[in-house]
Amino acid sequence: MTIQQLLKTAPVTTLLLASFIGLFIMQILTGVDANNPSTEALLKWGANALPFTMGDDPWRLISSAFLHIGLMHLLFNGFAMYFFGQIAEPMFGSAKFLALFLLAAIGGNLLNSYVTWQSILDGTGQPGLSAGASGGIMGIGAALLIAALFKISVNGMVLNLKSLIFIMGINLVYGFAVPGIDNAGHIGGAITGLVIALAFAIGYRQRLAVAIQNAAIQQQRTFNSYQTNYTYGAQDNPPYDSQYSGQYREQHDNQSPYDPTPIDQSPHLDAHSIEQDTAVANDETNTADIYAESITANNSPLSNEAVHNSIEPEALKKPSIIWQLLPWLTMLLISIGFVWWWQDIHQQLLQVLKAIE
Q1: What would be the CATH architecture of the domain defined by 3-218+325-356?
Q2: pTM, rounded to two decimals
Q3: Which residue has the higher pLDDT, 228 or 38?
């Protein structure tokens, strides 16, 4: 997919990639090492560090998601964002996709800070710093897993669940196997993405059910508009007896005598034949009369008029607005929960610092 196609299909993904690359270039231009940036430089450019993030710089929860520690880190996250973004953004919508990325990144950084803080209280850890879009990207990947489980399609195509699980598994295994990888950030971002995607999937299923019902109602309306019954009175069709039996008799009466043959034909056979013909004709006449009477009795007295089906179909249903707002309400609740979580760690940190003083 070219840059023009990506910008048209997934504009937020394109802007995120541009911001990652642009920030990295700005760091290089100011003298930051491209492969091994210093701790001071990372702190200057907005890395997530417990004393700062849980103190007076909560903005680092977001800024650190755009900062990368070295070129390889940038390339790895850039490829993952490109791969996931071009699928997830058209599926969830640009606004929801951006909110999903940011909240997943915040959730990852908060879990990282919480784990670090608990390890400090237990005396088993020390303050550190983290950076990168991995938390947000893991949130997007987890959301795509939910979309694959719920069989949500993108342009008629359903996601391959096995491929997504494989990619997510590689990220998690790589994080646990290689020292220095922010596993807490990955897990926190993935959990956040799962919760948001569940809300989206539930709302999607409910709206889809209403759409299917409306399609069935619309189909019934179309069927009813073309369903027409035509009835005719008995006077519109000539009696079957005069149309068929009379013609048959006329042909029988005008039939010329058959040439004599060596076989004798007794008068008894001739009379019997005539009786059979007469019985058949009378039987056909009675049948036609009964048929005409039954049609006249069972149908409307109106002749040559269309009788339309009078059954009215159901009215089209409207999906409840709650299903459209459910993802946004979920993200709002998650945001409130994140604020409370930050406040809780912040207050604990202030109490410990006050006790030390």
Answers
A1: Up-down Bundle (1.20)
A2: 0.72
A3: 38
